[in-house]
Amino acid sequence: MRTRRTVLLVAALTGTLLAGCSKPAPKTQAPVAPSPSASAITASGLPTLPEARQDLTAAMNRLGTTTYKFAVAGDYWDKQKFRASGVHDPKAHRLSRTTVISGGPDAETAKLVLMDEHQFTTTGSSGVWTHADLTAMPANNEYRHIDAADPIGLGRFATTLTTVRRTSPHAFQGNGFIEFRRGEIAYLPLGAPVLVGTGRGFVDFTATTDGQGRITSIRTELKTKNGTLTDTVTFRDFGIEVTPSKPAGARNVPASYER
């Protein structure tokens, strides 16, 4: 469960920059600002910052106005693999997802339902669901498995963009800043954020949009001391009916665990 993962992830990242340096960055270090050339026009005539960043942010924000399916595939800590799939209704604050970690000590299948600020989780084939009121939990609580305000991670990702350029009418590339705070879930993998650890660094990405200007995929690369984590999230079936229901018989997380 998350307690075991947190120990592994902190141990894997403590004392290193995510970008691969030998010492952690000072806590006061701010995200790196884009270079002066980032706002220039590229040789292809396509704009970079700030216009491209605004366009990409707008494309991600459009997902907040519709329902959709999402799927994630890629890497997890310690050379393990990660997959996820689910549905999201951002207006109704409803989300349902299944995550699968395979190929190592954290191997696990987990299901999660989010209804407003209420989280319901189950693992394996036990069929036993646990309920947690996220309003009563601090961000670094080990029983918190999702950020109710930003369950897909796009909101946090958008605020960290440092360099963005448009590579075609429906494609972007660039990088963003990421900081892992001990015990808190970061915004990766986009679509189903689950990574916990410590450290800070940069995330390279490519992204695509559709004809309506909605984000359809984002591929991220996070370089760590132990290798590169590459994950891709895709979005489809916009406007689909999303009807996750409250799992029956869910057990409440003990009040002593919510602190």
From TrEMBL:
Region (Disordered): 23-46
Cross-referenced InterPro entries: TAT_signal (IPR006311)
Alphabetized UniProt keyword annotations: Signal
Superkingdom per UniProt: Bacteria
Biased composition (Low complexity): 30-44
Signal peptide: 1-19
Protein name per UniProt: Lipoprotein LprG
Organism (species): Paractinoplanes atraurantiacus
